[in-house]
Design brief:
CATH architecture of the largest domain in chain A: Orthogonal Bundle
Helix content of chain A: over 70%
CATH topology of the largest domain in chain A: Tetracycline Repressor, domain 2
Radius of gyration of chain A: 18 Å
Number of strands of chain A: 0
Strand content of chain A: under 5%
Number of domains of chain A: 2
CATH superfamily of the largest domain in chain A: Tetracycline Repressor, domain 2
Oligomer: homodimer
């Protein structure tokens, strides 16, 4: 963990900010919460929140313990040739689930989304703002196609990892990428 | 409800069979449970279970309050020209979710599947046996492609109805069928 070397007071402050952030996101949603409001609830200066986390996106990622960084996600989707974007997205997604360290929080996230409309609303607005809208703008793509592509990725997670339905559950990553890459590519070829 | 006109004793017997069925499916899974075992636990003759429900599929549908009939599902998928099977499946699925009477139990089912590995395992085996394997056999289709098609339908449900992400959440059924029909068709064109 990145906390090694941090002084106890810093860890405490950071945890206090994250607790305040969880409250603020739950009460106001991702769109309504602000760094200023989170700082006020934590009793710290907003500059300190920026110092620890950078942007609101990153506060959200840390507060909800999300197993991915939206900035890296967007960068990976946008870099490289557009005619291979479908395969790139499927491989990126399979890689995240392949790693046991990210798979467990992903499963927990899917469960909270299914169980709680509030968590679903927070994650939806976050994904729209921090990932989908950025990709849509960069590639001049209708949001309907982007949400459709996201639905295929989410369904893959449900059937491969939650339901664990064979043969999709045990198919090698390469085979899944070969089969689903063209689907994501189709959604991106507006 | 279909219970009107049934004598109280019948309703009690039927409910007793369903309670026994839920226990047996939970303890043995969909594959392991038998009509004989369910009847034994309910203290009735197996013929009575057949009389009330027909097949084990139908006992499962009633016990888990599933909002669809697998036999009708398979029939709708298989009837009509194969070159339109993709659009047919998407429209069938959207129709089931469109009806508020089936939408609520569908949402409840998605939540239980995400929350409980036991429910996930029961539903997985049931869907494999009662729907996917039958369609795969009739159309000579690899199960990998069928589970991939199922994953797109499940993801559509998650993003359109659980996450309610726009614009996919409010897009008219026709627009969704036009966009996703070709994806399901692709999976079926092995």
């Amino acid at each position: 963990m990145a906390r090694t070397g941090r002084r106890p007071g810093q860890t405490q402050t950071r945890d206090g900010i994250l607790a305040a952030a969880r409250n603020q996101f739950a009460a106001r949603g991702y769109g309504g919460a602000t760094i200023r409001g989170i700082a006020a609830e934590a009793g710290v200066n907003p500059a300190l929140v920026h110092h620890f986390f950078g942007s609101k996106d990153q506060v959200f990622v840390a507060a909800l313990n999300l197993p991915f960084n939206p900035a890296v996600l967007v960068e990976t989707i946008l870099e490289g040739p557009r005619e291979h974007v479908g395969e790139r997205i499927v491989r990126l997604f399979l890689g995240l689930w392949h790693d046991p360290a990210t798979r467990a929080p992903f499963l927990a996230l899917l469960r909270s989304v299914a169980a709680s409309p509030e968590v679903a609303a927070q994650l939806r607005t976050f994904m729209e703002t921090a990932v989908l809208a950025r990709v849509a703008a960069a590639l001049d793509l209708p949001m309907l196609r982007l949400t459709a592509a996201a639905s295929q990725m989410m369904g893959l997670a449900m059937v491969r990892y939650v339901l664990a339905a064979e043969p999709l559950a045990s198919a090698p990553d390469d085979e899944v990428a070969d089969l689903m890459g063209p689907v994501i590519q189709y959604y991106f070829d507006a």
